[in-house]
UniProtKB/TrEMBL annotation, chain A:
<dbReference type="GO" id="GO:0016887">
    <property type="term" value="F:ATP hydrolysis activity"/>
</dbReference>
<keyword id="KW-0029">Amino-acid transport</keyword>
<keyword id="KW-0813">Transport</keyword>
<keyword id="KW-0547">Nucleotide-binding</keyword>
<comment type="similarity">
    <text>Belongs to the ABC transporter superfamily.</text>
</comment>
<dbReference type="GO" id="GO:0005886">
    <property type="term" value="C:plasma membrane"/>
</dbReference>
<dbReference type="GO" id="GO:0005524">
    <property type="term" value="F:ATP binding"/>
</dbReference>
Automatic annotation (TrEMBL), chain C:
<feature type="transmembrane region" description="Helical">
    <location>
        <begin position="445"/>
        <end position="466"/>
    </location>
</feature>
<dbReference type="Pfam" id="PF02653">
    <property type="entry name" value="BPD_transp_2"/>
</dbReference>
<feature type="transmembrane region" description="Helical">
    <location>
        <begin position="225"/>
        <end position="253"/>
    </location>
</feature>
<keyword id="KW-0812">Transmembrane</keyword>
<dbReference type="InterPro" id="IPR001851">
    <property type="entry name" value="ABC_transp_permease"/>
</dbReference>
<protein>
    <submittedName>
        <fullName>Branched-chain amino acid ABC transporter permease</fullName>
    </submittedName>
</protein>
<feature type="transmembrane region" description="Helical">
    <location>
        <begin position="415"/>
        <end position="433"/>
    </location>
</feature>
TrEMBL record, chain D:
<dbReference type="GO" id="GO:0015807">
    <property type="term" value="P:L-amino acid transport"/>
</dbReference>
<dbReference type="InterPro" id="IPR003593">
    <property type="entry name" value="AAA+_ATPase"/>
</dbReference>
<dbReference type="InterPro" id="IPR052156">
    <property type="entry name" value="BCAA_Transport_ATP-bd_LivF"/>
</dbReference>
<protein>
    <submittedName>
        <fullName>ATP-binding cassette domain-containing protein</fullName>
    </submittedName>
</protein>
<feature type="domain" description="ABC transporter">
    <location>
        <begin position="7"/>
        <end position="238"/>
    </location>
</feature>
<keyword id="KW-0067">ATP-binding</keyword>
<dbReference type="GO" id="GO:0016887">
    <property type="term" value="F:ATP hydrolysis activity"/>
</dbReference>
Length: 266, 421, 654, 240
């Protein structure tokens, strides 16, 4: 126990929220990520870019626990979370949004948000309560749910089935669900995929607005957007980190030009 | 309650409905909790019809036997209804018990509660029959089961159950005697691993022990009920065939047919005589094909026998259905006839009265004079030993009788039955 | 001593080869179409009956002709089944194929009864195949040798067909990547019928050669289908090689165990199946296939206003409470008996719905818990205490505990594999009931009596009478209220649970398990809890039955009952709690009415069920919503909600 | 040959479920051309190919091939018309041998088009010749790509839809693949190429479409695209 604490203290020196250490994932012969060392500071807006097959989503899956790592470790808030289940990681503050909107389509908007909110409160009530006390009677949970519905602007449609929402609202709900788990770090996997220009802008505005306090990790293809939003950018290529830096540094990096953008300017 | 034109009639209806149910009667006032007194079924001397419930497993594994039994039942009812000797008519409904005791009881409830049956008959499988045994006692209706399990008129007997089916104990008697006399006392067994198989093993063993001091059980193999592959057992039996005088098989139905068919293909009966309990059933012979040839079997019934009015029964049966009766047809037939005799004798259709009358009453049956004896209400049927032989034409093995035991000789002693009546 | 070893081997191979033929078709059908064909056993039986129809009039030598003609006919039937019943379901959750083919089992089985009559019949084989041979001290019949050789040749021919012909290549490719086969311009969908027909024909061949070896009977299909599944699961769903190895393995293991360890026979294949599913869910030779998407279609409850629904429910309960009062005037006491049956099975169906409709776990072995409850009550009453309360309490606790254990082992495998493993557990239990002394073996336990109280204080139902006006409520009628009370209490409790945080999580799992994980729920734990609650309720249902009926028999745990309760849930509408209760009512109502007309009522029921699975998968409760648009003339949801294909979101790579 | 293009995609809207990926997208491909589709990840390139092939059905718009409307056809039917998709993941049948993979293609495809025999295809790709009886799963990425292209040839395609053929391949193999594409074209096969590697496209293609968010934002020859820095910068993120 004591040893662990020392370890933890060491790791949390500085204000690093997420750190991966030589993270490797192999699928059979194929190495999807190869010894990735990623460090993300608290409060940062970090984007991850790279060509198809670079290992971006795999990296996300390793950080969130959706896939077990072949080798290496993931530290969150200085703690080794490599062997924790996805849900455990969510509880420690890692939220995730998905490429394709991934909400509970058959439930109402309110239920969607409440479920996430409830996950947070889980330890505050005992087992029997959780079995028998109707959800409507948990005040703090419902208040928080309403607050979030307000923030994502879906309070008016709270009692509609999520499936019935227009596409853009679904994405808003998706973000609301993530927000309701009160994450410290949010991973966004292409939140604007399949959106029109206007929708993209709205979504980004929303993310910026409601998640301003959180650390954000974003996979995005729209380079322009990435350049505009990010504090730092990590470029992956063939499972390895090719470059890391501020948007300006990345734009000026010839390796990036070469590998990611196809060596156009050779 | 007195509203309406016929308070009297309505009260009668209510009473009937209640007494037909599982509970006996009424005392006390509306809204009270009381302790209902026993109330006798009102005897009415004056009746034209008697309601029977015929419960058979029309679907499932025993459905052919069910059909066979049902034809016997129908024939008996037809004859009784046409006969002047009985001044009442039997009305009946059929119920499909499937293979499941739960369904059987439900159907019995339907017959008794909904359709007002006072007499029920049927069921082939012993677990269904045992469930109905209990039901008959609880509901005070007379029941004539179609299963051979010893405990039906043994440990689980009760005063409402009368069995014309020959029990495993009776068959074991003739099998044991004949086997010990003709084949020897070194026996290997193969049984189906359930109640019927175990009871054959027990009954034959007890009797062999009492007949011969040198009796020895060479070995027992057990197969799951419903097994369809007996190669491994046949190999094991063949291995000990030199040490044993005979193989006793405690199986019935499809299990036995398949066993005989496979044993026949392996030529097992050339190595060791095979003695079965029900190999003489036509259904088994039909299923086993030439596998049945040259095997021995206890015989509960074959159409050829010349006892009582059997030949009249066979003729009538053949005329009606174009086919010879077999074991279950005669059980269905005689169960109805004997109960009808009881009703005539009692002059009542009250099941309790009829049950009292039936116990120990003499009947003329296809086996000649017979009775449900008082100590266990089991019919005193004669039993035979037979051999299944290759027929002159066709595939179906013929049964040749080898030895007969009278009802007296075959029946176990009253004190050994486990029945306390 | 070599013969000592060879004899069981030869014996085992005989049956093993038949298993191979049976399992090969089943497995290839799954590989290409992802259809689990429960009706395979019936096609097997049909093969034997067609052969019988040919051999009987023409004599033994027609056997050889039958060996080719009958499979052809069954193959054609297989094609028709694929074309008209299976095809409309592609794209839905593969569990619907299980449901559909279960319905087909009921239909085909009754058709066999109708056409050929019940009973075991011997299928005569030609003279040339009779007699025995003795080699190396091994005794075997010529027919055994014929089975091994002919079956071996057939299996080899199928293998060669798969390996070396154009069709075989296409079928193998189809079981690996259907879309790519389409991309190559090959109409793989057209081959589905062929594959189904071929699988059916193989089953028919197995049926014929086994028919000659055993007997032919309408039950022969039911008796082989479970072992066939075990083999396919062992070998790996979709793998021909797996079917061959699995079939021979099971044949030999069974035979060897009969010789050396007879106590395990019957149980061992299920233990083997459970072990394989837990350690290597894809079986010995199975390959990783993509989990087929497609949601389970739950009933829609949103048709009526909540207020109206509440009033309707109260009205229904009031009506139900009045039932015993009409006995003797409006109807006989049998009405109460029938209603008790419906209530108990309604409770059983409700228990299944709680896991199936809310967490998507389709348990094919729920009769296990029903049987467990029944036996727990019976054993308690016989050996521990005659108190009904103690017995029922124990039944609930024991069922819940075993459900926890089964759930602990099973829930980690999903979908079709979960269905299979629960089936294996139920069969294991069913087998144990036969073997154990405490369960009374094959006959079960009888003559059980009880009182309603604790520590020797309390009346039996037969001793009490309540009098309401002219009607006396005693015995059966009082028990009716106990059962009804249990059902209503269970309904209210489960409904309350679904409105609690726990229930919300269950619903979220049904909607989208992955998302549920990523908002912080350990879904396995929630599913297991739901399974425990479901098991406890099923145990309560079984316990109530035994309490009333006074006996317990192994048939309570028979797999057909697990199937029937699924039928009830689907008929009513899964995921609604009340739908399955309605389903139970309709099921028994139909049975009650139909048995009055024909012993072949399962034919009608099966047909209705098949039509439900195809056309009204959301059950009866969805009927008003389905009809509403037509009645009011407005446009509503189409009759067939098209589930969007699930795009797997956690992928290996981006 | 008439002036009519071989393939014409006219104002097609398509996507997955509710997600609209393509918005009124139009493009044409003439016989004998190599046409490239470039754009960022998620721009809708793969969706375009899948919609043409018939794996996805467009919700509106019209796709014609040799003047015939193929919008509603499924993949099997379009393949029989002479289209072949070489998908991004290659989708080699892992448990079939290399030869069987090719034989399978021979059973499918277009009956009207002169196709390579399995033997000819194996000759064309030396690497495959040596591994003809190895399982598909044992091939390297480059070999898989060649086998995937080989299947299209054996199937008798005259329009090949190539989805990211160089993805995940080592640079020297990229060159091999580019050579093969050129060779295909010399055999008279038309190629619609989706690439992220702008370099590959500009080298190979006669014409290029730049698509962004499901719409065509630029069309032009490689020369003109190379010169258009604004497009390169804005849609492809390639700065001068």
């Amino acid at each position: 126990m004591a040893m662990e604490t020392t370890e933890t203290n060491q790791r949390s020196a500085g204000d690093t929220i997420l750190e991966t250490e030589d993270l490797v994932k192999k699928f059979g012969q194929f190495t999807a990520t190869d010894r990735i060392n990623l460090t993300v500071e608290r409060g940062e807006f970090r984007s991850i870019i790279g060509p198809n097959g670079a290992g971006k989503t795999t990296l996300f899956n390793l950080i969130t626990g959706a896939l077990p790592a072949t080798d290496g470790a993931v530290y969150f808030d200085g703690e080794d979370i490599t062997s924790l289940s996805p849900s455990e990681r969510v509880r420690r503050g890692i939220g995730r949004s998905f490429q394709i909107s991934n909400i509970f389509g058959g439930l109402t908007v309110r239920e969607n948000v409440r479920l996430a909110s409830q996950s947070l409160d889980r330890d505050q009530y005992n087992f029997l309560q959780s079995l028998f006390k109707p959800t409507g009677r948990y005040d703090s949970m419902n208040e928080r749910t309403d607050r979030i519905l307000d923030r994502i602007g879906l309070r008016d449609v709270a009692d509609e089935t999520a499936d019935a929402l227009p596409y853009g609202d679904k994405r808003r709900l998706e973000i609301g669900v993530v927000l309701a788990t009160e994450p410290d770090l949010v991973l966004f996997d292409e939140p604007t995929a399949g959106m029109s220009v206007e929708e993209t802008q709205e979504t980004i505005d929303l993310i910026e607005e409601v998640l301003v306090d959180q650390t954000l990790l974003l996979i995005e293809h729209d380079i322009e957007l990435v350049m505009e939003l990010s504090d730092h950018i990590t470029v992956l290529n063939r499972g390895e980190i090719l470059a890391e830096g501020t948007p300006n540094e990345i734009a000026a990096n010839s390796d990036v030009q070469d590998a990611y953008l196809g060596g156009m300017m050779e | 309650m007195t509203r309406g034109g016929k308070p009297q009639g309505r009260r009668r209806d209510v009473l009937k409905a209640i007494t037909a149910g599982s509970v006996a009667g009424i005392t006390g006032l509306a809204g009270c909790v009381g302790d209902p007194d026993e109330m006798e079924n009102g005897d009415d001397d004056d009746f034209d019809t008697v309601q029977f419930g015929v419960l058979e497993p029309f679907t499932g594994e025993f459905s052919d036997l069910a059909e066979e039994r049902h034809q016997g039942t129908e024939l008996a009812i037809e004859q009784i209804n046409e006969s002047d000797e009985y001044d009442f008519e039997i009305e009946y409904d059929d119920y499909d018990t499937q293979l499941d005791p739960a369904t059987a009881t439900q159907r019995a409830e339907q017959a008794v509660q909904s359709d007002g049956a006072q007499f029920i008959t049927g069921c082939i499988s012993s677990s269904a029959a045992l469930a109905i045994n209990d039901f008959a006692l609880e509901n005070e209706v007379v029941y004539t089961p179609g299963a051979a399990d010893t405990s039906i008129t043994g440990a689980n007997c009760n005063e409402y159950v009368f069995r014309f089916e020959t029990s495993t104990a009776q068959i074991a008697e003739v099998m044991a005697q004949w086997t010990a006399d003709e084949l020897g006392d070194q026996i290997v067994y193969h049984i189906a691993d359930y109640a019927y198989g175990e009871s054959v093993l027990n009954e034959v063993e007890t009797r062999m022990e009492s007949i011969s001091d040198d009796y020895e059980q060479v070995g027992v193999t057990r197969s799951d009920p419903g097994s369809t592959d007996f190669e491994a057992f046949i190999s094991q039996i063949a291995d000990v065939s030199d040490e044993a005088d005979a193989l006793v098989v405690g199986m019935t139905g499809a299990d036995l047919a398949i066993f005989l068919s496979q044993a026949g293909a392996r030529g097992l009966q050339d190595e060791i005589p095979i003695v079965t309990t029900t190999g003489s059933f036509r259904a088994v012979r039909a299923g086993a094909g030439d596998g049945a040839y040259n095997t021995y079997s206890g015989v509960r019934y074959i159409p050829d026998i010349d006892t009582g009015d059997n030949q009249e029964f066979v003729e009538a049966y053949e005329a009606e259905y174009g086919d010879l009766p077999d074991n279950f047809s005669r059980v269905g037939y005689e169960s109805i006839r004997m109960v009808a005799n009881g009703i005539r004798e009692a002059g009542s259709r009250n099941p309790s009265t009829v049950a009292e009358t039936l116990s120990g009453m003499e009947h003329d049956t296809i086996f000649g004079p017979n009775e449900f004896r008082e100590c266990d209400q089991q019919a005193m049927n004669p039993v035979w030993m037979g051999e299944c032989v290759e027929p002159d034409s066709g595939e179906l093995a013929d049964v040749e009788l080898l030895e007969e035991l009278t009802g007296e000789e075959a029946a176990p002693d009253c004190e050994d039955t486990g029945c306390e009546l | 001593m070599i013969t000592g070893f060879l004899q069981p081997l030869v014996d085992g191979l005989t049956i093993g080869v038949v298993y191979v033929l049976l399992a090969a078709g089943l497995s290839v059908i799954f590989g290409v179409m992802h259809v689990i064909n429960f009706a395979h056993g019936e096609l097997f039986a049909l093969g034997a009956y067609f052969a019988l129809a040919l051999v009987v009039p023409f004599g033994g030598t027609a056997f050889f002709a039958a060996l080719f003609i009958a499979p052809l006919l069954v193959g054609i039937i297989g094609v028709a089944i694929e074309r008209y019943t299976v095809r409309p379901l592609y794209g839905r959750n593969p569990l619907y194929h299980i449901l559909l083919t279960f319905g087909l089992v009921l239909v085909i089985n009754d058709l066999i009864y109708l056409v050929w009559q019940p009973g075991n019949v011997n299928l005569p084989v030609p003279e040339i195949l009779t007699g025995t041979i003795n080699v190396l001290g091994i005794n075997a019949s010529v027919y055994n040798m014929f089975i091994i050789v002919f079956g071996g040749v057939m299996a080899f021919a199928v293998w060669a067909m798969l390996e070396y012909t154009k069709y075989g290549l296409i079928i193998r490719a189809g079981s690996q990547d259907r879309q790519m086969v389409r991309n190559l311009g090959i109409d793989i969908d057209r081959y589905y019928s062929l594959v189904f027909g071929m699988g059916a024909a193989l089953a028919a061949v197995a049926g014929i050669i086994l028919g000659g070896y055993q007997t032919v009977s309408p039950e022969m299909g039911m008796s082989v289908i479970i072992p066939a599944f075990v083999i396919v699961v062992l070998g790996g769903l979709g793998s021909f090689k797996g079917a061959v190895v699995g079939g021979l393995l099971v044949g030999v293991i069974q035979t060897v165990l009969r010789t050396y360890a007879p106590i395990f026979e019957g149980m061992v294949i299920f233990l083997l199946m459970i072990a394989v599913l837990l350690l290597r869910p894809r079986g010995l030779f199975g390959v990783e296939t993509e989990e087929e998407g497609g949601e389970l279609l739950t009933g829609s409850g949103g048709f009526l206003e909540p207020q109206t629904r509440k009033q309707l429910a109260i009205g229904m309960i009031a009506l139900l409470a009045l039932v015993p009062l009409g006995v003797g005037t409006l109807y006989s006491a049998y009405a109460v008996t029938l209603m008790i049956e419906i209530i108990i099975w309604g409770l059983f169906a409700l228990s299944l719905d709680f896991v199936m409709g809310y967490t998507g776990l389709v348990s094919l072995g729920h009769a296990l818990f029903y049987g467990l409850g029944a036996y727990a009550v019976a054993i308690t009453l016989l050996h521990v205490s005659q108190s009904a309360f103690i017995a029922i309490g124990l039944a609930i606790v024991i069922s819940a505990a075993i459900a926890w254990f089964v759930g602990f082992l099973s829930i980690r495998v999903g979908g079709v594999y979960f269905a299979m493993i629960t089936l294996a557990f139920a069969e294991l239990f069913y087998n144990m009931l036969y073997r154990l002394d405490i369960t009374g073996g094959s006959e079960g336990l009888f003559g059980i009596s009880t009182y309603y109280g604790i520590a020797g204080m309390g009346p039996t139902l037969g001793d009490i009478g309540f009098y309401v006006g002219p009607v006396a409520l005693t015995g059966q009628s009082l028990f009716y209220y106990i059962a009804l009370g249990a059902l209503i209490a269970s309904f209210l409790i489960t409904r309350r649970m679904l409105n609690s945080p726990f229930g919300s999580v269950l619903k979220s799992i049904r909607e989208n398990e992955q998302r549920s994980t990523f908002i912080g729920y350990e879904t396995t734990i929630y599913k297991r809890r739901a399974f425990v609650i479901s098991g406890a309720l099923a145990g309560l249902a079984g316990g109530l039955f035994t309490l009333n009926a006074g006996y317990a028999t192994p048939s309570f745990a028979y797999w057909l009952h697990s199937g029937e309760v699924i039928v009830m849930v689907i008929l009513g509408g899964m995921g609604t709690l009340y739908g399955p209760i309605i389903g139970a009512g309709v099921f028994f109502g139909l049975e009650e009415i139909l048995t009055g007309f024909t012993a072949r009522w399962r034919l009608v029921l099966g047909t209705i069920f098949v039509l439900f699975v195809i056309f009204l998968p959301r059950g009866l409760v969805s009927l008003p919503a389905q009809l509403a648009p037509y009645v009011s003339g407005g446009s509503g949801p189409g009759p067939e909600p098209e589930p969007a294909p699930d795009e797997p979101s956690v992928r290996g790579d981006d | 040959m008439s002036a009519e293009p071989l393939l014409s995609v006219h104002e097609v809207t398509s996507g997955y479920g509710e997600t609209q990926v393509l918005r009124d997208l139009s493009l044409t491909v003439d016989g004998g051309e190599i046409v490239s589709l470039v754009g960022r990840n998620g721009a809708g390139k793969t969706t375009t190919l899948r919609s043409i092939m018939g794996i996805l059905t467009p919700t509106s718009g019209r796709i014609t091939y040799r003047g015939e409307d193929i919008s509603a056809l499924d993949a099997t039917e379009t393949a029989k018309k002479g289209l072949a998709l070489v998908p991004e993941e290659r989708q080699i049948f892992p448990e079939l041998t290399v030869r069987e993979n090719l034989e399978l293609a021979d059973y499918g495809g277009s009956p009207d088009v002169d196709s390579l025999s399995v033997g000819e295809a194996l000759e064309m790709f030396e690497n495959l010749q040596a591994r003809a009886s190895n399982a598909g799963s044992s091939l390297s990425g480059g070999e898989q790509q060649m086998l995937a292209i080989g299947r299209a040839l054996v199937g008798g395609a005259d329009l090949i839809l190539l989805d990211e053929p160089t993805e995940g391949l080592a640079p020297y193999i990229v060159q091999d693949v580019m050579d093969i594409i050129t060779e295909l074209n010399e055999r008279g096969i038309t190629v619609l190429l989706v690439e992220q590697n702008v370099h590959v496209c500009l080298d190979l293609a006669d014409r290029n479409y730049v698509i962004n968010q499901g719409e065509v934002v630029y069309e032009g020859t490689s020369e003109s695209l190379r010169a258009d820095e604004e497009v390169l910068d804005k849609y492809l993120g390639v700065t001068a």
